[in-house]
């Protein structure tokens, strides 16, 4: 803008014309991260920007918000999310003829899953019969044979998390400890898991906790299905193709039909059984307990490192019970104490 300044002194007056150029401050987005949301719960997050002329208009630059959430022009992300998972997108803000953008991610989690060990954490698995094994895998998955589980049991909906482990053991062995309290505990051996279960059972009397048998694990993983997986692998599993070679909070991927998350991928899971490559040929038809003895313990489900082949419901892996690995964890079964 142009203006004239007049100055007077000792009866004399002078004027001078000036030009003032006013420019907006550079604009930037101050928000560096969005808080996690809980599926089914109201969400409200205010975005923050600085610079420009102070009048900000927000819009989506690329990507989409999770279903149920919306972005207002004044920079509020709100709504009620309906879909689990992590969603990435780019937001744009304009002000005073300037603009800025930022890539952000929001994670939609499933409430209190992975915290404490209350009833919410477990799904009741009814007794039933299924075909165990696969003709399409390696020799230890054969023969396919009919197995009946005569008793119902409660299977943990998620893998045991770092928070649940620390609550019982008072420490955290996980390689991916920075992943957070609702990420699966890993780098625990089968022997470590037995120590955890012993401590957990000693702390209460209502339930008896244990690892699932191999038959219980496959029955629960299949959830009534007969194919290689219990559904769409990309929707249900963190594995080599989508995990970034790291674990993720439990419950982000879709559950199977029996409300069990991460039965495929995230971390591979210890089960109770000793491994015997020929056991399926002699397995009892009802409630198979696994071999009486052995050198290796069975691991099921595949991890964030594995290929799709190793995430099949029937896939069997084994390792020594003292071995720790950052892709290996577990989930619990519990039954009422007698």
Please provide a written account of the structure:
With 338 residues, this protein is mainly β. Helix content is 10%, strand content 33%. The protein has four helices and 21 strands. The strands form seven sheets. Strands 4-11-10-7 form a four-stranded mixed beta sheet, with no helix packed on it. The protein has a four-stranded antiparallel beta sheet with strand order 12-15-21-16. Strands 19-18-17-20 form a four-stranded mixed beta sheet, covered by helices on one side. Strand 8 and strand 9 form a beta hairpin. The longest helix has 13 residues. It is elongated. The N and C termini lie far apart (87 Å). The model has no long low-confidence stretch (mean pLDDT 93).
Which features would summarize this protein structure in a list?
21 strands; four-stranded mixed beta sheet; 10% helix; mainly beta; four-stranded antiparallel beta sheet; 338 residues
Layout of helices and strands:
Elements: E1 2-9, E2 12-19, E3 25-29, E4 37-38, E5 43-46, E6 49-52, E7 57-63, E8 69-71, E9 76-79, E10 85-95, E11 98-109, E12 122-125, E13 128-132, E14 145-149, E15 153-156, H1 162-169, H2 190-202, E16 207-210, H3 214-222, H4 233-236, E17 268-274, E18 297-300, E19 317-319, E20 328-329, E21 333-336
Parallel strand pairs: 4-11, 17-20
Antiparallel strand pairs: 1-2, 3-6, 5-9, 7-10, 8-9, 10-11, 12-15, 13-14, 15-21, 16-21, 17-18, 18-19
């Amino acid at each position: 803008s142009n203006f004239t300044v007049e100055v007077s002194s000792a009866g004399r007056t002078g004027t001078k014309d000036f030009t003032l150029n006013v420019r907006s401050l550079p604009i930037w987005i101050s928000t560096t991260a969005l808080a996690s949301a809980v599926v089914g719960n109201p969400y409200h997050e205010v975005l923050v920007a600085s610079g420009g002329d102070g009048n900000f208009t927000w819009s989506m630059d690329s990507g989409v918000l999770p279903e149920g959430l919306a972005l207002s022009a004044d920079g509020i992300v709100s709504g009620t999310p309906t879909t689990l998972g992590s969603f990435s997108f780019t937001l744009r803000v304009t002000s005073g003829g300037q603009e800025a953008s930022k890539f952000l991610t929001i994670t939609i989690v499933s409430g209190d899953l992975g915290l404490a060990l209350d009833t919410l954490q477990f799904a009741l698995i009814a007794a039933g019969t299924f075909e165990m094994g696969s003709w399409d895998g390696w020799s230890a998955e054969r023969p396919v044979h009919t197995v009946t589980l005569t008793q119902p049991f409660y299977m943990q909906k998620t893998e045991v998390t770092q928070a649940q482990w620390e609550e019982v053991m008072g420490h955290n062995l996980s390689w991916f400890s920075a992943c957070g309290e609702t990420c699966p505990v890993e780098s625990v051996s089968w022997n470590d898991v037995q120590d955890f279960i012993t401590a957990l059972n000693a702390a209460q009397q209502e339930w008896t906790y244990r690892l699932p048998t191999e038959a219980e694990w496959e029955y629960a993983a299949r959830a009534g299905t007969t194919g290689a997986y219990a559904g769409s692998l990309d929707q249900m599993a963190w594995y080599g193709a989508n995990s970034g070679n790291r674990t993720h909070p439990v419950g982000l991927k879709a559950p199977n039909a029996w409300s069990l998350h991460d039965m495929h991928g995230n971390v591979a899971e210890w089960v109770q059984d000793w491994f015997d490559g020929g056991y399926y040929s002699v397995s009892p038809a009802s409630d198979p307990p696994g071999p009486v003895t052995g050198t290796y313990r069975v691991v099921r489900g595949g991890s964030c490192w594995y290929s799709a082949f190793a995430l099949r419901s029937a896939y069997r892996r084994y390792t020594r019970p003292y071995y720790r690995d950052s892709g290996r964890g577990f989930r619990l079964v519990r039954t009422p104490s007698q």
